[in-house]
């Protein structure tokens, strides 16, 4: 079986209220697996891959695209290498219209040590991960310039440096996930919306989006999910649900991509057996 064979025991189904999050470390790629991932890419992706100068960024891109293609093949009868993508006017990648799969949506993010993918039936879906050790100019200055009043107050309440950095990235990833779900990229002003949640919220379900007129949105449409998938990463998902139905997030760790399937870490019935 080659890396481009169809998965078995599939397709996975996405109910209207489901967001599937797939995680993989980009650092576990040996030369044989790197070549198998490269074989899945189309010409544009290969050209982008070749343009990366930093090996770590190149590996993140490669793994993200290989995971995306392999995971999407768990939801629809298409081989990993056969997916075609286009993008909206702000560069948000999506499944190409001509494939005729209107209810399959995704968003990808990558950071040092982690690639994450959200797959959903919700058209407006966004995901972001950040490495908590990522060096930034000045967190306080960035928060001052780009965060809303509730977000700044959250950071301001935290005294010690480490917790402050974590609080910063908790806000940052949620903001990025929302911007990515809207698909507007940097054309959207980060300070045009504010996120707040009570101290007891640990998974993002109580996060509220407060929009200014410049944000051009109704905050009540939105739901959030946040997590620490590793001790070094903060992750957030934003989704606009239909009819206020709470979405459920199912998270899976991918250990490797093999025989056209994701091999999962830990038991998961019906999938994850290396072919
Ligand atoms: C491109 C952007 C959407 C996200 O970039 P990022 O956080 O650096 O990178 P991520 O790894 O999270 O996401 C990159 C992926 O998002 C996807 N993407 C690209 N444009 C997108 C858009 N307009 N909307 C949603 N997703 C997009 C792509 O799949 C991209 O991966 P690829 O280039 O390998 O295909 C853009 O919003 C950005 O550069 N944001 C950073 C701006 C900032 O200062 N944020 C501060 C928050 S407080």
Summarize the structure.
The protein is built from six helices and twelve strands.
Bound molecules: coenzyme A
**So, the CATH homologous superfamily of the largest domain?**
4'-phosphopantetheinyl transferase domain
Strand content: 25-35%
SS element count, helices? 6
Report helical residue fraction.
25-40%
- List the domain count as a whole number: 2
Tell me which oligomeric state these chains represent: single chain
General description of the model:
- This protein is α+β, with helices and mostly antiparallel strands.
- The protein folds into two domains: 1-122 and 244-268, 4'-phosphopantetheinyl transferase domain (Ribosomal Protein L22, Chain A, Alpha-Beta Complex), CATH 3.90.470.20; 124-240, 4'-phosphopantetheinyl transferase domain (Ribosomal Protein L22, Chain A), CATH 3.90.470.
- The chain is 27% helix and 27% strand.
- It has helices at residues 31-40, 43-51, 55-72, 139-146, 149-156, 161-182, and strands at 18-24, 85-87, 93-95, 105-111, 114-120, 125-131, 193-196, 208-211, 222-230, 233-240, 248-258, 261-264.
- It has a five-stranded mixed beta sheet with strand order 4-5-1-11-12, covered by helices on one side.
- Helix 1 crosses helix 3 (55-72) and helix 2 (43-51) packs antiparallel against helix 3 (55-72).
- It binds coenzyme A.
- Coenzyme A binds at residues 61, 64, 90-93, 107-110, 128, 146, 172, 175-176, 179-180, 183, 185-186, 190.
């Amino acid at each position: 079986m080659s890396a481009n064979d169809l998965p078995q025991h599939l397709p996975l189904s996405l109910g209207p209220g489901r967001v599937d999050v797939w995680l993989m470390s980009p650092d576990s790629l040996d030369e044989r697996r790197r070549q198998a991932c490269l074989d899945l890419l189309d010409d544009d992706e290969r050209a982008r891959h070749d343009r990366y100068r930093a090996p770590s960024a190149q590996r993140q891109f490669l793994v993200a695209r290989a995971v995306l293609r392999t995971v999407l093949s768990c939801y629809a009868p298409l081989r990993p290498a056969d997916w075609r993508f286009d993008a909206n006017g702000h560069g948000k990648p999506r499944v190409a219209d001509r494939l005729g799969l209107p209810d399959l949506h995704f968003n990808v993010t990558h950071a040092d040590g982690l690639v994450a993918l959200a797959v959903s039936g919700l058209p407006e879906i966004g995901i972001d991960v950040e490495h908590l050790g990522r060096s930034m100019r000045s967190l306080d200055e960035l928060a001052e310039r780009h965060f809303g009043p509730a977000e700044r107050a959250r950071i301001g309440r935290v005294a010690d440096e480490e917790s402050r950095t974590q609080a910063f990235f908790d806000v940052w990833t949620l903001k990025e996930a929302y911007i990515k779900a809207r698909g507007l990229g940097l054309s959207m002003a980060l300070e045009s919306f504010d996120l707040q949640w009570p101290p007891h919220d640990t998974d993002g379900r109580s996060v509220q989006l407060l929009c200014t007129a410049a944000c051009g949105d109704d905050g009540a449409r939105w739901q959030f999910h946040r997590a620490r998938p590793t001790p070094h990463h903060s992750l957030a998902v934003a989704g606009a649900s239909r009819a206020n139905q709470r979405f459920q997030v199912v998270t899976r760790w991918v250990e490797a991509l093999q025989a056209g399937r994701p091999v999962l870490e830990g038991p998961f019935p019906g999938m994850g057996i290396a072919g």
